[in-house]
Amino acid sequence: MPPVKNKKKLIILVVLLLLVAAGFLAYSRYEKMEAENEPGVLTIYGNVDIRQVELSFYDTGRIKSMLVDEGQPVKAGQLVAEIDPVRLEAQVRQLENEVETQQQIVNRLHAGSRPQEIKEAAAQVKACEAALKDARITFNRLKKLAKTKYVSQQQLDDAEARLNEALANLDAARQRHELAVIGPRKEDIAAGEARLNALKAALKHAREQLKDARLYAPADGIIRDRILEPGDMAFPQKPVYTLALTNPLWIRAFVPEPDLGKIQLGMKAEIKTDSFPDTTFRGWVGYISPTAEFTPRNVETPDLRTRLVYQVRVYVCNHDNKMRLGMPATVRIMLNQEKKTGDISPSNICREE
After folding, report:
1. Taking the mean position of all CA atoms in its chain, how far away is CA 218?
2. Domain boundaries in the chain?
3. Could you say which of 3.60.40.10, 3.40.50.300, 2.40.30.10, 2.40.50.100 is the CATH number of the domain covering 57-83+213-244?
4. Neighbours of 284 (CB within 10 A)
């Protein structure tokens, strides 16, 4: 019997200890709620907002290299992946040669005829004038002889044909000389310049395509997913990485409608997380939604869930990179503070901090 009594005493002792522990926890929770609901302080709850960007190449190509891994932080403008640029480089070189060739053609059109070409045309005019003079003398001589029957009519006709041919050759030589003096037509120059501009535009496009063969991070963040690997085909519609944005970070919290008039943009806030209970993060109210909504299921507040709330973004200065996307957070806003004036952008506020 003594062992049974001892066992009962032990059970009673354990029950008493559990009751004391439960009471202590309840009291601690009560004290915490009282502290959170202290006068002059608004306590709201939320999570570090998850914002992400899907990174993909602008053009199609085979991936040459992937330079970052999942979980790795990246900076804005950092190179993260490349596709094989061989085809694009060849296209750029071809267009560069075509542009250079067309540029020389346009330069020649603007320069007009060379002095040697003008002199050559003038010499051809003189030669045609001399040939015309000789043809005319021959025709006149045969014409007189034809009257005395010393030459046949056929000889006279041949002389007349040579005279007409000499006249035509002289006219053509004079036209060529005039064109050489005037230079190319305005329409030819305009057409040459238009083709040059088209080739330049094509070259610019090809160079942009070559630049697009390199993928850069658009903002600071952390690589969440590495979707493709070297050797895969990249398409504009298929992401290569998923980038979680970390700058700026903000807490997406919700304020009940009766408390909405107590806060203003720029008010400072204190943020605490379960992961770092001894660390107080500094923040400020950066956005207040203009429309109401019902309390989301993932937000823990002491108010009823059917109550209308307004979304609030509380920006956080995360200098030590302790906060993680999706982390639950408690936000305390002192209501008796002065209204913040001036620039309340994340870069300005965190620099002040």
Report:
1. 8
2. 38-51+245-352, 57-83+213-244, 89-209
3. 2.40.50.100
4. 23
Q: What is the DSSP letter of 150?
A: S
**Helical spans, DSSP H, in the chain:** 2-36, 86-111, 115-147, 153-182, 186-211, 346-352
Would you give the end-to-end CA distance of the chain in angstroms?
70
Report the CATH fold assignment for 38-51+245-352.
Elongation Factor Tu (Ef-tu); domain 3 (2.40.30)
Q: Quick check: helix, strand or coil at residue 229?
A: coil
pLDDT (tens digit per residue) in 37-94: 567 889 999 998 878 899 999 989 999 999 999 989 999 999 999 999 999 999 999 9
176 DSSP 8-state letter: H
Query: 111-143: b or e for each residue (b if 16 or more CB lie within 10 Å)?
Result: eebeeeebeebbebbeebeebbeebeebbeebe
3-state secondary structure of 97: helix
pTM of the predicted protein model: 0.58
Contact (Cβ atoms closer than 8 angstroms) between residue 297 and residue 8: no
